[in-house]
Amino acid sequence: MQENLIVPFVDLKSQYLSLKKEIDSAVLSVMENATFIGGQPVASFENNFASANGAKHCIGVGNGTDALYIILKSLGISAGDEVITVANSWISTSETISQCGAKPVFIDIEPEYYTIDVNRIEEKITSKTKAIIPVHLYGQMAEIDKISTLCKKHNLFLIEDCAQSHLAEYKGIKAGSTGIASSFSFYPGKNLGAYGDGGAVITNDDSLATKMRMFANHGALEKHQHQIEGINSRLDTIQAAILNVKLPHLQKWNKQRLKNALLYNQLLGDISQIKTPKIRSESMHIFHLYVIRAERRNDLMNYLMEKGIQTQIHYPTILPLLTSYNYLNLKAEDFPIAAAYQNSILSLPMFPELTEEQINFVSESIKAFYK
Ligand SMILES: *Cc1c(COP(=O)(O)O)cnc(C)c1O
What is the mean pLDDT of the chain? Predict the structure, then answer.
């Protein structure tokens, strides 16, 4: 964290200090037990995270990107297949599709809530389409009920990217509970963050769970019994011990984020040059990110930085327009909403420990900029 920051984008240290005793002792006990791979902390986190999500199986893996790759490979996604996903996300969502040999097919976002535009999915379904990966972006769920209906109608796998949506809900449905399998990230800045990389997959499907556990462990369920070639992707034991301490606090932290977001919404609501985020009715938005759309976005960002307020952009270039996808020959006109929004979206500081004073300061600074 920079010294001159009055409001950092995230503050991982204050959360650590609030649980320091428990976290320190959990980490130390891993070292004292000298079981550094697997062991009790991983097994108990898998149980705890499965039950927090109402899922039958949880498999801890190395990170949220591996989680997606493990799901796709275990479902048999391969060369010649197409997988539909959303234009505005982190690259993990699409690069793992390509890593399986399949082709990512991008869909624009809908203008109000920034998640995949369900009305544009069906026109992109072909005989090669095998799966749809919606992303519950910024902590708000996509219209999972409608996407699920589409998947059933066209016999497609539904895979939920829940990296930004731990325990989010929509119409009483938990993030990650509708798809055949769902991926989570415990990257430090996520709503449930480890102190390094970490991830998990959840599923209710017994045979898929076995396949995923096997693929993540060199294709073996028992040592030296390699039934297929796999990868080495584990949830680190120290990270699992830390996550076990943090998980019981997740619901409370999510609510604090929501409370902070509602205060921002109230304070920023009447500035005509910005649009505050909207919350779907019947939903629990967990505000992984608080994203506004702002006129003169880059100038505002610089102005706030000068005031000691750190902001970010999620994401400055939508996936289809990244250099990595030049070969797909996609144009901004193919994604009119997402391509327009990439130039106006701005993520304001958001974390559970953010104070009212800090939110006031950010809001007053934004008002001052537009005066
Ligand atoms: C963070 C993130 C991932 C990847 O997680 P890692 O743990 O960093 O690999 C995947 N998808 C989305 C939408 C993310 O935000």
Answer: 97
